[in-house]
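Lab manual, section 2.4: Encoding a predicted structure.

Procedure: take the sequence of the chain (187 residues), apply the prediction step described in section 2.3, and record the output as structure tokens. A sample record is shown.
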Amino acid sequence: MQIADVQDEIDHELVSKAQIEGKIKEVAAQVSKDYAGKDLLLVAVLKGAVNTLAAFSQALSINVQMDFMSLSSYGEGFESSGKITVRQDLSCDVKGRNILIVEDIIDSGYTLDWLVRELKGRGAASVEVFALLEKPSRREVEVPLKYKGYEVPDEFVVGFGLDYKEHFRNLDSIAVLKPSVYEGAAA
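Recorded output:
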């Protein structure tokens, strides 16, 4: 889906489809080099990171495995509660594995911090992070990002997996939602 299809709800495009593709290819080339000859497990947090994981895994030149977790720290609101709920756990054992967490966006950092500590606690050999987007202005917990995409301002972004009430995930770029779309919504 392109921005033209939802123009009345989108304020402006922040990161284009071409920019996303370029950044993913750049990071995938580096990861392919860094993990050449190693057993790498990509872990994505559902649902937001699915688009990033799919594009990223296809851009890699090394063989990898993939697994998913469903985590929540938001409940019904728009602010992280800091309390992590595991909705769906990984289907494989991570003990002794090299893990690269593939994320759509890092906001407060609570969820990612919890996940990194959890995977290390399960005995992972290494745990690194690739985040397509990050909002440094909202960071409350510092999480080391080995592979970085784009920094975005503190605006409500949607697209390429990011949603508002489960909509806009299939937008092929990252865009800023018009405040009128979510004004008055429960925070």
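Check your result against the sample. The mean pLDDT is 91.
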